[in-house]
Specification:
By secondary structure, this protein is α/β, with parallel strands linked by helices. It contains 10 helices and 17 strands. The chain folds into 2 domains: 305 residues, TIM Barrel; 78 residues, Immunoglobulin-like, CATH 2.60.40.1180. The strands form 4 sheets. It has an 8-stranded parallel β-sheet with strand order 7-6-5-4-1-10-9-8. The protein has a 4-stranded antiparallel β-sheet with strand order 11-12-17-14. α5 packs across α6 and α7 runs parallel beside α8. It starts with a helix and ends with a strand.
Length: 398
């Protein structure tokens, strides 16, 4: 079977940005620091010696891997990707290549990646990890830190071969089957990117590699953060996205997207052929913020009833510019009309259908709807009110 098959069918995954940056939570020296939470070391130009002190305070005693995986499962997510090492260089797993990791440098002394990988296997969710292969503000040869190190003295290829690859070997050897390795910030040369890709696949050939390995060597295309393309996109692609405005936890970011907006985004992305990797930023105590949990559970309730129109679906067969009322997905002999704007006059005109329709019904009630088809154009008679308050799905069967 094609190793991408499970990923194409999954459509929806959980991203987790968690690390030392959850302690300052967007505040340094009594100042709120602009930008996303996990970039605080860079944005505030915090010296390594100062930032390292956070490790002594990091003790997320409320962390519960099974609870996190349960939230992902209740949300209808099919895979999970967590930050093993973000740009700050702190390792959220047990590694022998630096003491700057959660097991050796913190009072916590546990390996959350090990616990999450086991919980994911138990619940049938694919486990993956994010690894910053390019930026590393803690390592003298990693890219990005110009306030502690002289950029002219960096040896990036040495860093890649003697630090990144050995750590990847640990992650690909000690944590069971890895669904996705999510690199970030393109690897600088085609040669190094290819070497990195071949190294990963030499250990776990079935692992999928994200597009941000760079140089067009990923197994799928990664869109920009929170970027949903305006049109149907060919090939495999994914939108990584936030529920508020940050990835790593920020105590004062309360700009939460509504559940309706998140469901709309999911449907929009799937209708254009992509996957939605939706982020949570847990606190320093190890708690996924309640506003995230509430929204994810509500998304899961919608997917429990309407998941047939999302999982395993293909991009819209209908031209997007004619879908003023919503979005469209397709699977085998069924077209799913996702109606976000309900026609008050009780009729829906659908143009450019690819085949003749034999049945039409709401996915929730399965009650037959009257319709008339002339050539490729269909007129549907709808109930006076939407069945679902956010997105009523109408199934057209050939």
């Amino acid at each position: 079977m094609d190793k991408m098959q499970w990923w194409r069918e999954a459509k929806f995954g959980m991203f987790i940005h968690w690390g030392l940056y959850a302690i300052p939570a967007g505040v340094w020296d009594d100042k709120t620091i602009p930008g996303i939470g996990e970039w605080i070391m860079f944005t505030a130009r915090i010296p390594i010696k100062e930032y390292e002190k956070l490790a002594e305070q990091f003790n997320p005693v409320r962390f519960n891997a099974e609870e996190w995986v349960s939230i992902a499962k209740q949300a209808g997510m099919r895979y999970l990707v967590i930050t093993a090492k973000h740009h700050d260089g702190f390792c959220m797993f047990d590694t022998k290549y630096t003491d700057y990791n959660i097991v050796k440098a913190t009072p916590f002394k546990r390996d959350p990646l090990k616990e999450l990988s086991q919980a994911c296997q138990k619940e049938g969710i694919r486990f993956g990890f994010y690894y910053s292969q390019m930026l590393d503000w803690h390592h003298p040869d990693g890219m990005g830190n110009f306030w502690d190190f002289d950029p002219a003295k960096k040896n990036f290829s040495k860093y890649l071969r003697e630090y990144v690859m050995p750590q990847l070997e640990e992650l690909l050897t000690n944590y069971g089957p890895i669904g996705v390795v999510w690199f970030d910030i393109d690897t600088p040369t085609p040669e190094l990117a290819r070497e990195l890709r071949e190294f990963v696949l030499s250990i776990q050939p079935e692992t999928i590699i994200s597009g941000r390995i760079g140089q067009n060597l990923g197994d799928y295309q990664e869109r920009g953060d929170n970027e949903i393309p305006p049109t149907v996109i060919p090939g495999d692609w994914e939108t990584p996205a936030t529920i508020n405005d940050t990835w790593g936890y920020k105590s004062y970011d309360h700009n939460w997207k509504s559940t309706g907006q998140l469901i709309y985004n999911l449907v929009d992305i799937v209708s254009k052929g992509g996957n939605y990797l939706l982020n949570v930023g847990p606190t320093a105590e190890g708690i996924i913020p309640e506003p995230s949990v509430v929204r994810l559970k509500e998304m899961g309730e919608w997917l429990w009833l309407n998941g047939e129109s999302i999982y395993g679906c293909e991009r819209s067969p209908l031209p997007l510019e004619k879908l003023w009322w919503g979005k469209c997905t397709m699977k085998e002999n069924k077209i799913y009309l996702h109606i976000f704007a309900w026609p008050w006059y009780g009729k829906l005109e659908v143009a450019d259908l690819p085949f003749a329709i034999k049945k039409a019904y709401p996915l929730l009630t399965k009650e037959s709807l009257s319709f008339k088809q002339e050539g490729n154009n269909l007129t549907l008679i709808l109930p006076t009110k939407p069945i679902d308050p956010i997105d009523t799905v109408i199934v057209l069967e050939k």
